[in-house]
Amino acid sequence: MLKTHTIALDPNNVQATQFAQHCGYARVAYNHGLADFKTGLDEGVWHSHIALCRRFNAIKHDTYDWCGDMSQNASKHAIYTNLNDAVSRWKSGQNRFPRFKKKSHSKSYQADSGRGTISVVGKRIKLPKIGWVRMFQTLRYLGTICKVVISKQGHRWFASILVDTFADEPIPDPRGKPIVGVDVGIKHLAVTSERQYFENPKALRRHERKLKRLQRQFSRKVKGSRNWYKLKDKIAKLHYRITCIRNDAHHKATTAIVKGASRIGIESLNVAGMIKNHKLAKALADASLSTFLEMLKYKSERTDVKVVEADRFYPSSKTCSACGVVDSDLSLSDRTYHCRACGHIQDRDLNAAINLRTVAEGHSETENACGDSVRPQQLRRESSNQEDSTVIGEQLLLFSLS
Ligand SMILES: [Zn+2]
């Protein structure tokens, strides 16, 4: 089984510079290959990635005389893997024609030269031309290292290590654990029918003022000056921090939910549709609920826990979890659900989570892990955007009041 572990690196100054140089080399090679491919197309010749690699290798020492100090894996993968992928996606109609990579483009390069060519010992990794680099963690998986990608996020360098694991770890048996409904939202990131409440860290909101201040300062600096670069790094660092806070909350919540469930019921949100509403966009993007649900799905899949998505029209918030009556007049400012039919009183999010659990309970064993058969038609989804927006809109209002 192939598994990836991304580990933060702790390079010294020389190594950090070498990383940046290798990323630059990968970019130059990619752009050269793309230009070559384009010229070929104009002349009516289709250069394969193998040909592009060969053509690049033939001229590289003359055109880019500095490339001798670099690991040639960087340029090879840039053309052989990345450019080839981009071209095949364009060819199959999946993507637009590949574009040239800018200097400001996210920095990364692939360091290995095939399976088992990179060694990791304890908290160190040996990279071609660079040597042993310290890592902040040991590699989580035992097996053959297939691929290593070095990349930069904010101020930090990372190694994404793809491992072909020797033996699959035994999956804990989910049977005997309860069926759990999960209601996601802006106020709480998630509420489960087991009465677990996961706070939304509101990472962006917490750092919004600081970010704005930095961005204002940044706009006043002379482009390309030393202070301009300093602030640019500061902003990148803050963005990275915001992402980390959000990811941390997502990982902790999803792991806890998946560990304690035999089956999970979730709602199907059209977040992409809702985000078009500018008033909600920021809070929704800050919570990144779709990422949360995706994370929940892939973690469930790994541990054999089924995920059942409710129909988009299923009124999980408006249904009484005790008697099943739908209260369409339910005001969204009510944080508590009060059933007019049976008098049932419950926290609004918990009520929704219990309804989603009921959806998961009614789902037959034979359907697949993602619960494809209970998903509504694509066409029907579009029409419900409006309703979803209002629901989240009022939730947002509450959120900004709280
Ligand atoms: Zn009721």
Based on the model shown, name its key terms.
single chain, 402 residues, alpha+beta, Nucleotidyltransferase, domain 5, 11 helices, 45% helix, disordered C terminus, binds zinc ion
Structure description:
There is one protein chain. This protein is of the alpha+beta class and 402 residues long. It folds into 2 domains: 2-165, no CATH class; 179-203 and 246-401, Nucleotidyltransferase, domain 5. 45% of the residues lie in helices and 18% in strands. The protein contains 11 helices and 14 strands. It has helices at 13-42, 49-63, 72-91, 203-220, 226-259, 271-274, 278-287, 289-302, 348-361, 378-383, 385-401; strands at 2-10, 108-110, 119-121, 124-127, 131-135, 143-153, 156-165, 179-184, 188-192, 197-199, 263-266, 306-309, 336-338, 345-347. The strands form 3 sheets. Strands 2-6-7-1-5-4-3 form a 7-stranded antiparallel beta sheet. It has a 5-stranded mixed beta sheet with strand order 10-9-8-11-12. β8 (179-184) and β9 (188-192) form a beta hairpin. α1 (13-42) packs across α3, α4 packs antiparallel against α5 and α5 packs across α8. It is elongated and about 85 Å long. The two termini are 46 Å apart. The model is unreliable at 364-402 (pLDDT under 50). The protein binds zinc ion.
